[in-house]
Structure formats: C-alpha cells, structure tokens
Amino acid sequence: MGKDKLRRFDELGQFERVFQPGIEEINGKEYYLKGRWRELVFGNNSPIILELGCGKGEYTVGMARHFADKNFIGVDIKGARMWKGAKASHEEKILNASFLRTRIELISSFFGSGEVDEIWITFPDPQPTERRKKKRLTSSGFLKLYQGFIKEGGIVHLKTDSDQLYQYTLSLVESNELEILCERSDLYKGSDPLDPILEIKTYYEQKFLDKGLNINYLKFKLKTNIPLHESPEKEG
Prior knowledge:
Layout: H1 3-12, E1 18-19, H2 23-26, H3 37-42, E2 48-52, H4 58-66, E3 71-76, H5 79-91, E4 97-101, E5 116-122, H6 140-147, E6 150-160, H7 163-175, E7 180-184, H8 203-210, E8 216-222
Parallel strand pairs: 1-4, 2-3, 2-5, 3-4, 5-6
Antiparallel strand pairs: 6-8, 7-8
Helix pairs in contact: 1-5
C-alpha cells in the first residue's frame, strides 16, 4: 500500500463523523448505531438519506451543503476514496454529513426499520453480465435489503451512465409495480429545469460527460410490505 493511501487511512480514522467498524463488530450482529443515528450522531429528528457506493463522497457532501435540514450518510468500502468527501466535510464542519465504511451487503446491520427516508445510488458498478446481476445495487436482492430499513414509500434514486443498468432497473421497478416518480434516459438533454440536487456531479459523472456519454436517472418509491421478484426480462 502506497504512503499516500496509508496517510489517507490514518486521517480517515481521526475524523469524528467517519465510522469504520471491524468485521467482528458486525459479523452476525447489529451495529451499536442501528436505529440510533439521529440520536447519537446527528442529534436531531431530521430525515436520513443514504448514498450507497459513495466513492469520493461528492454527492453526500454536495447534498449536505444544499439541505441543512436533512442528514446524509455516505457508504462505501473504499476508504482511500471516501477520504476526499470525509475530509471536506470535516474541514467545513458539515454536521449533517457522516460516512460509513462497510460493504453494502452488510447494510442491514447498520440501520433499523423505517430509519432511512431516501437512498441514492450514484454510478455503481453496472455488473454487466447476466451471471453477476445479483450484485447490482438495484437488483431485487438488494432492494429487499433496503426494504428492511427504508420507511414505507421511501424514495430510491439511481444515477448511472450505464444504459443497461438503467433499463434493467426500470424493468424491475415496473414489473414489481413500484411507483415511478421520474425517469430520464438523458438527464441533461432538454430545456426542462432540473432539480438542483440532480446537478451535483461526482468525479466519475464528470468523466462520463466529458466522454459524451448520456446520464440516466430513475426515481421511484419502494414499498416495504410486498415481496419483490427479479424482472422477467432476459438480457442478451
């Protein structure tokens, strides 16, 4: 591991609002903050919004700057990437932003029933092959995990450069009869004004835009009291 990466990991451990539980703390257990993020971290009763796979944390920090009346938590396993957003949040004293370093597969250990109001999934690995679609963060398996802690009718946002992931998720949402609030296959095309929150751009998003790629956006409500199934559509 390079010196710069080691320095970032060391700094990450010193930031007050970064949580990095060891596997022994969550292996088959519930993390001590589960159901208590508002009480023990934020000290308020404001909505909690997660960014899953937050990367460098630009979206988490950007949203926290825009919405002081909401709490934001960026989740990712890559500490050296997360360091950038965590450092900005720490230096700017953004008290409504926190970061959690863990695998998304373990997310149920960290949040209690109805504790989360919204989920953002920004530019995740599209896992393009059929045999890896269960690893997509919008697969029925992951949505079932989210059902365990998102409030009834809580909102899920997907922002991706992958047309395949967008169409897959749209098909899954439609086949499960979830309410779609917005669907745009080319987010920045057209003259309709965008919600300011959609204009926040991550490092990866800007790279995709520089290459001339279109950005897909999907926003839908997730019911917590229904079984979910995979989309019947087969991929080529």
